[in-house]
Specification:
alpha+beta; single chain; zinc; SPRY_dom; 39% helix; 7-stranded antiparallel sheet
């Protein structure tokens, strides 16, 4: 507060050691006598601006000890010969330093915000992917349970059907035996009645009457009981046929699980694509085009062979991906990132060097590594393929999924670098293309597709 009148102070004079309101501040602002006085924000405690050792105003800043000091401290005190500067100079230098650090921290804050946003997006993406993975896994296992239940019901129905046939046969046999039993019992009773006749004439008459029945009954073949049992061998053979179908369906379910847990979400790398290869917007499909694409020059771009790699590389674990192919000739496989990119030499051609392994179709199907090809048996051109990579085991397996799953070939080696999925469109037609199938969208279990 102002010392003269009870108004809020607006400035404090360090020299006069008083606080003043706007009215009493005017002389300090207008008269030359007060121009050398230092005015600061209003404060009631000026002791902080006094040197505790010399009771003098602090006017300098010691950069070494990072403290405010008076003249005596500078000349004869403990700060003698230190890097000491006036408040004005120190203020300027410290401000410049602080502004520089604020700029740096602002950049770090911006970077942190970016990382935080990326982390949140990744968290959201991971949660969504996990939820989708869980739901797809549940659907597949529901399908497996349904397959088992269906097979169990079929087995029970077959056993019951066989049992019904057997029971019907046994009931028919029992019916015949019952009729014979009644017939024999009736004749026996009649014969016993004749034997009790004492009158000779009547005995002879009754004997004549029953004689024919006795002869027919004795000559009639006796029906022996059937000793039948379930034909387990035939039943087993029928069940075996059903089991083959069951195994095929379970194989499909197992394939769904493999796709679900091992499949990798691949995207094509535009920086590696040959100028006459056009990539789809989602970076899933590559096709040949007669028109050169406006790709920028890049050291990783193939400039002679019409090839492209994926962004994703693998240096451990098991990985699986599926492909659809169009007409014409193609190569699919993997390669090291160190494989050549420029020129027409074999060092840049998939399958023709030690850094790449491929399955290729060129009128016939074959595999190739280090320029050594191996022909494969083929009935029709594959249009859907799968690649199974087990990096740690050193195996690369190609599968034909066009009609039913068939293993085409397995490379066995020891990988020494990260490997990248690679493709080559060899035909120069617009119908030549390769599509990398999406992890979840293209692999929904059959019963989910029907709902």
């Amino acid at each position: 507060m102002c010392l003269e009148i009870p108004h809020p102070a607006v400035r404090t004079c360090l020299k006069c050691e008083i606080s003043m309101c706007a009215l009493h501040l005017k002389p300090h602002l207008e008269k030359k006598t007060f121009q050398s006085h230092t005015l600061v924000e209003p404060t009631s405690d000026l002791s902080a601006r006094k040197c505790s050792k010399h009771d003098e105003d602090v006017k300098y800043y010691c950069f070494e000890d990072k403290s405010c000091i008076c003249v005596s401290c500078t000349i004869e005190g403990e700060h003698k010969n230190h890097n000491v500067k006036s408040f004005k100079t120190a203020h300027s230098e410290l401000r410049i330093g602080l502004e520089s650090k604020v700029k740096q921290i602002t950049e770090k804050l911006k970077l942190a915000r970016g990382f935080l946003e990326k982390a949140r997006q990744n968290e959201t993406s991971v949660k969504a992917a996990n939820a989708e993975l869980k739901q797809n896994a549940l659907d597949i296992f529901d399908n497996i349970i349904q397959l088992v239940n269906n097979y169990k019901e079929q087995m029970m129905e077959m056993i019951e059907a066989e049992q019904r046939l057997l029971v019907d046969s046994l009931e028919h046999s029992t019916g015949k035996l019952t009729e014979q039993h009644h017939l024999f019992k009736e004749i026996q009773q009649q014969a016993d009645s004749v034997l009790t006749e004492t009158d000779e004439f009547l005995f002879i008459q009754k004997h004549q009457e029953i004689q024919t029945k006795l002869t027919e009954a004795l000559e009639k073949p006796f029906t022996e009981p059937d000793e039948k049992d379930l034909n387990k061998r035939k039943l087993f053979e029928d069940l075996e046929n059903k089991f083959v179908e069951f195994q095929a369906e379970m194989g499909k379910a197992h394939q769904d699980l493999k796709v679900l847990f091992l499949s990798s979400e691949l995207t094509l790398d535009p920086n590696t694509a040959h100028p006459k290869l056009m990539l789809s917007e989602d970076l899933k499909t590559v096709r040949y085009t007669a028109t050169k694409q406006a790709y920028i020059d890049h050291p990783e771009r193939f400039d002679h062979w019409r090839q492209v790699l994926c962004f994703q590389g693998f240096s451990s674990g098991e990985h699986y991906w599926e492909l659809d192919t169009g007409e014409g000739y193609w190569h699919v496989g993997i390669c090291y990132k160190s494989m050549g990119r420029k020129g027409s030499g074999t060092d840049a051609e998939l399958g023709c060097n030690a850094a790449s392994w491929t399955l290729k179709f060129h009128d016939e199907l074959s595999v190739c590594h280090n320029n050594v090809g191996t022909p494969l048996q083929m009935s029709t051109q594959p249009t859907r393929l799968a690649v199974h990579l087990h990096y740690d085991a050193g195996t690369l397996t190609f599968l034909n999924l066009t009609d039913k799953q068939t293993r085409l070939h397995t490379f066995r080696t020891r990988f020494t670098e990260p490997v990248y999925p690679a493709f080559w469109i060899q035909s120069v037609t617009s119908t030549s293309w390769i599509t990398v199938r999406s992890r979840f969208k293209d692999h929904v279990p059959k019963h989910r597709q029907e709902t």
